[in-house]
Write a structure and sequence with these properties.
Blueprint (H helix, E strand, L loop, with lengths): L6 H7 L2 H4 L3 E7 L6 H13 L4 E6 L14 H11 L5 E3 L2 H4 L6 H11 L4 E7 H4 L8 H7 L1 E5 L6 H11 L7 E3 L9 H9 L10 H9 L6
Parallel strand pairs: 1-2, 1-4, 2-3, 4-5, 5-6
Helix pairs in contact: 4-11, 6-8
The structure holds adenosine-5'-triphosphate.
């Protein structure tokens, strides 16, 4: 766990004096398991929006997955560590450490207390954008962060643009569509394939596939 950044360690890692008004990407997710879609979103957001860092923050107990099976926290963290290819990608345990249901507004509040001079960019898929109205205190969240949206397979661009326009106003254009779409992959499909003995190569790094097999993450 020593390579992961809790809130206090984050402060030491990114002293505001050094980084000034840096842009920090926040990639929240269950990562059950992490796949190439998640990794490519971090790379594209970093490159297209001049982010200095992309923080991968695995969820504790997200409200929209209450009651569902989620792999052990340690397994999800290990898989992130194995998969993330660039030093600008960092894993934070801040949501896992928080007890109970985790909400983005609490994560942002904690991050903003530490990084008062930074701008935040939440990196999400278009399926998440379409449920943004259900996020706790979404009006407040929209004042705390911008959103970078990746079009996800199955979602329609017109609908996505309509929702983006809904959240933007002439004075604040803070929900933006990335130039590139998300890759056609999901954790649900990967879990299904593994549980049914189907091949998952090409969906996620081989090293993560080996870890899943060695640790029986999705099989008994
Ligand atoms: P599951 O299938 O278990 O719901 P997932 O593949 O959606 O998992 P999450 O960890 O829940 O992965 O996703 C974290 C964030 O990344 C969400 O905002 C989701 O919309 C986005 N995301 C995940 N995969 C993609 C993808 N292939 N294209 C675009 N966005 C994605």
């Amino acid at each position: 766990m020593s390579d992961h950044l809790c809130t206090e360690e984050l402060k030491e890692y990114y002293p505001a004096a050094v980084f000034g008004k840096d842009r920090i990407g926040i990639m929240g997710g269950t990562f059950d398991p992490i796949h190439y879609g998640h990794i490519q979103m971090g790379i594209d957001a970093h490159d297209q929006f001049a982010l200095s860092k992309v923080l991968y923050i695995p969820t504790g107990r997200p409200p929209h997955k209450a009651g569902q099976f989620i792999a052990k926290d340690q397994h999800r963290l290990d898989m992130l560590d194995i998969a993330l290819p660039y030093p600008y990608m960092q894993v934070s345990t801040m949501e896992i450490e928080r007890k109970g249901t985790t909400y983005a507004v609490d994560t942002l509040t904690a991050l903003k207390n530490v990084f008062q001079e930074h701008e935040f960019y939440y990196i999400i898929g278009s399926d998440t954008l379409l449920t943004l109205d259900q996020w706790r205190h979404i009006d407040q969240v929209l004042t705390m962060t911008c959103f970078i949206v990746f079009l996800r397979k199955g979602d329609h661009i017109d609908e996505v643009n309509r929702v983006i326009d809904f959240y933007n106003s002439p004075s604040r254009q803070c929900v933006v569509l990335a130039d590139t779409p998300g890759l056609p992959v999901s954790s649900t499909e990967i879990r299904f394939r593994i549980m049914n003995g189907l091949d998952v190569s090409g969906f996620l790094p081989d090293e993560v596939i080996d870890y899943i097999k060695e640790n029986n993450v999705y099989t008994k």
